[in-house]
Sequence to fold (228 residues):
Amino acid sequence: GNSVTQMEGPVTLSEEAFLTINCTYTATGYPSLFWYVQYPGEGLQLLLKATKADDKGSNKGFEATYRKETTSFHLEKGSVQVSDSAVYFCALSDGGGADGLTFGKGTHLIIQP
Amino acid sequence: SAVISQKPSRDICQRGTSLTIQCQVDSQVTMMFWYRQQPGQSLTLIATANQGSEATYESGFVIDKFPISRPNLTFSTLTVSNMSPEDSSIYLCSVETEDRVTGYTFGSGTRLTVV
Fold:
């Protein structure tokens, strides 16, 4: 079956630090890959996505590249802000949208001023 | 993208009772998905609901415990039956975006506490 593995948190960084949150996946087909973010007290929001190998998703300064050879979709940001503090979920969709999403366990990111 | 209204937003329920969660979408969608997010955990897919057919449940989830209705293309309900404290979770509904490429939209969730 499908699975997503992401680094456990919490991850604590200082403002303006470089961020990497690792995500690797196992899938039977050719999945689409997503990063979702959950800010404190808010619902789940799509941050970025990639639908095929070598695609790069980007949004709000965050980037992730779909690496089929390493089955990875690591999330990066060059300079984090306090407002980036949230829980980040890596997820995949396999089956053209018919099967819903398989989520990683989530990474709690804390940015200190 | 679709806007989802989910209610109730939270509830505290007695063990042994049942709670029905409603999910209303502002556009017609083929499939709706129900997830559970246990405290401090990730989201787990409970079932997929298609209009006009029985829901498809994931391993570990059964219809008797989580009956789902899907009477039309914009509405679905999830019932948590015969609740126990272990059912305390956030329950979310989700739909695929119209372009089938952008991703999935989520409701704001129902925070359930069973006492």
